[in-house]
């Protein structure tokens, strides 16, 4: 170890002696900033014996010099390219370590920077000298480095992101590679996929995912790749197959490539996506939904999410071909994608999986809308999955803000609203079915009750401008006969999560009532029956939850604001006495709850009438007398 290497290693160790560390740091900084400091590093890079940390520092200084405009002359660049190619060629034979990985990555960055600046004008054989020879290096030891170089070339030169930063350079490099080396490179992808080395196969699939964006698609979609796709994704198994995520991601990238719809449709046929989708629809959720060790550093999602992205990509390409080509085959492919998409939604709790799948399902519903009867089977399957997955899980607390279920449910409810627009009759009959099942259930579920009311509310919102008899009838049923699991006798019977779900079910019922003002105004005889849950243990008298009571007070105010006329004309005394009973006697209500109840009284008593009645005056007295007594009591204690 020479003095220079000692200084570099000291500068990288802040725990070293303070004076020695400062001296070393100053020394290496002087070398780095010197006009010819890079030359000093190039000379030593060509020598053996230096530790990986030292060589990494050399490469870093050289890279900065290359990136500095006008610093290197033509002869300097010739020398540097020669040294870098020789350095890269020697890497496969060196021992592996974490530090050596940093050296490999930094040398790849330096190679890519030189390619970006000099290829093909002054360095036309960059890939023939620096990349292709690695394939025959030391019995295949150079193949991982071959793929590492391609990764960095993509990151820095040919990817979409690189093109956005340096468009001219990116186009120049890609055009030159097409005429120079891309066929050799892609043939290596295919040959590697035929090997039994999972790590190398994962690297090849990663390269296909990266390069399929701009290379001739026939160079990457080979019989070998298609066979691997069906071997990996097309066979039902309880165990996750190796490379599942890599295969799915590579195929998705291929299908995302920009090309005319007619070519896209031919590509779907070539990959045999219908057979693939049928297999994916039959797959069961695997227990080991994790990346294999050969895939961990390739920036992949977990396998189920990559499969969801693939299914969505296939379906969206098929829909694009349907729209532009009016292709019956494309429509058949989209139809085949639905069972696979529904399986993913039905079995996976990951909101990212659901989000990917929902894009296609929402498009499917919109396509089915003009002719819903012809697509009733598929749409019904979607509704059934939405209902199944939207119900609260047994262990779910709806007030737990850390849970991911709420995000999943929000997407499902948005999907349901889209289905309501397309098939209102199907949706309302599905809600009615849940209600009927729970009415006949000897032990009805708060989660199912909440689901029925939540779905019914979505029907109300979407169909608000229409008067649909089935909707009105279902709303009247729900409000006039609340499910038994909300009643006082049920309180305290179950665990905390179930109690929280029961509270949400009550709130969902109150939300249905809030949006039912037209129905209640027309059928005013049902008002007192609808109000009953607000005033008992399902509402203001809930024995344990202050949140439940406070939200009920808020719901009551909003509900009666819209029904002031009905209350003033028919039920003023009943409503006033019911509210006053809580204001005057309840020790459970907070001051804010009481204020909300007084505001509610003000709303109903303040409704304008032509001729005030004695009853109205009496009700005012009932409200004002407790307030006057409280004021007088407060005054006397001062």
From TrEMBL:
GO terms for biological process: tRNA re-export from nucleus. It is found in: Cytoplasm; Nucleus. Residues 101-239 form the Exportin-1/Importin-beta-like domain. It holds the Pfam family Xpo1. GO terms for cellular component: cytoplasm; nuclear matrix; nuclear pore. GO terms for molecular function: small GTPase binding; tRNA binding. Keywords: Cytoplasm, Nucleus, RNA-binding, Transport, tRNA-binding. Its main location: cytoplasm. tRNA nucleus export receptor which facilitates tRNA translocation across the nuclear pore complex. Belongs to the exportin family. This is Exportin-T.
């Amino acid at each position: 170890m020479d003095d220079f290497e000692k200084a570099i290693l000291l500068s990288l160790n802040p725990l070293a002696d303070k004076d020695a560390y400062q001296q070393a740091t100053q020394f290496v900084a002087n070398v780095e900033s010197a006009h010819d400091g890079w030359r000093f590093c190039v000379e030593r890079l060509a020598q053996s014996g230096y530790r990986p940390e030292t060589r990494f520092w050399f490469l870093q200084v050289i890279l900065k010099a290359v990136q500095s405009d006008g610093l290197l002359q033509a002869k300097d660049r010739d020398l540097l390219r020669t040294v870098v190619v020789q350095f890269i060629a020697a890497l496969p034979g060196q021992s592996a370590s974490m530090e050596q990985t940093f050296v490999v990555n930094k040398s790849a960055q330096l190679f890519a920077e030189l390619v970006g600046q000099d290829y093909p004008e002054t360095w036309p054989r960059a890939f023939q000298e620096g990349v292709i020879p690695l394939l025959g290096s030391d019995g295949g030891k150079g193949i991982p480095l071959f793929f590492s170089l391609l990764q960095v070339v993509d990151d820095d030169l040919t990817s979409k992101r690189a093109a956005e930063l340096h468009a001219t350079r990116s186009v120049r490099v890609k055009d030159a590679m097409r005429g120079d080396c891309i066929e050799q490179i892609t043939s290596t992808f295919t040959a590697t996929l035929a090997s039994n080395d999972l790590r190398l196969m994962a690297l090849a699939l990663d390269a296909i995912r990266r390069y399929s964006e701009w290379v001739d698609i026939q160079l990457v979609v080979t019989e070998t790749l298609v066979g691997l796709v069906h071997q990996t994704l097309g066979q039902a198994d309880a165990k996750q197959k190796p490379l599942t995520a890599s295969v799915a991601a590579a195929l998705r990238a291929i299908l995302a490539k920009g090309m005319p719809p007619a070519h896209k449709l031919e590509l779907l046929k070539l990959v045999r996506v219908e057979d693939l989708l049928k297999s994916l629809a039959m797959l069961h959720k695997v227990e080991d939904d994790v990346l294999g060790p050969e895939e961990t550093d390739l920036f992949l999602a977990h396998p189920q999410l990559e499969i969801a992205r693939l299914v969505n990509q296939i379906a969206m390409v098929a829909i694009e071909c349907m729209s532009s080509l009016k292709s019956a085959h494309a429509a058949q492919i989209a139809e085949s994608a639905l069972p696979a998409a529904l399986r993913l939604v039905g079995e996976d709790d990951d909101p990212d999986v659901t989000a990917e799948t929902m894009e296609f399902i929402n498009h499917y519903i919109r396509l089915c809308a003009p002719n819903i009867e012809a697509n009733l089977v598929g749409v019904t399957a979607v509704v059934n999955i939405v209902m199944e997955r939207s119900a609260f899980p047994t262990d779910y607390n709806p007030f737990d803000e850390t849970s991911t279920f709420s995000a999943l449910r929000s997407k499902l409810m948005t999907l349901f609203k889209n289905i309501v627009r397309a098939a209102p009759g199907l949706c309302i009959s599905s809600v009615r079915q849940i209600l009927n099942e729970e009415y006949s259930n000897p032990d009805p579920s708060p989660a199912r009750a909440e689901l029925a009311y939540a779905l019914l509310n979505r029907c109300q919102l979407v169909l608000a401008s229409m008067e649909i008899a089935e909707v009105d009838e279902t709303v009247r049923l729900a409000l006039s006969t609340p499910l038994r699991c909300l009643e006082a006798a049920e309180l305290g019977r179950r665990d905390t999560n179930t109690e929280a779900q029961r509270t949400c079910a009550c709130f969902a019922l109150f939300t249905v009532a809030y949006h039912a003002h037209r129905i209640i105004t027309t059928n005013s005889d049902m008002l007192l029956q609808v109000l009953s849950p607000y005033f008992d243990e399902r509402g203001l008298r809930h024995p344990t939850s202050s949140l439940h009571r406070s939200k009920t007070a808020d719901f009551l105010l909003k509900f009666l604001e819209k029904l002031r006329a009905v209350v003033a004309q028919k039920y003023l005394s009943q409503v006033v006495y019911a509210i006053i009973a809580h204001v005057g006697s309840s020790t459970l209500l907070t001051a804010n709850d009481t204020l909300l109840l007084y505001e509610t009284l003000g709303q109903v008593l303040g409704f304008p009438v032509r001729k005030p009645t004695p009853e109205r005056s009496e009700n005012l007295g009932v409200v004002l007398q407790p307030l006057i007594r409280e004021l007088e009591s407060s005054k006397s204690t001062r």
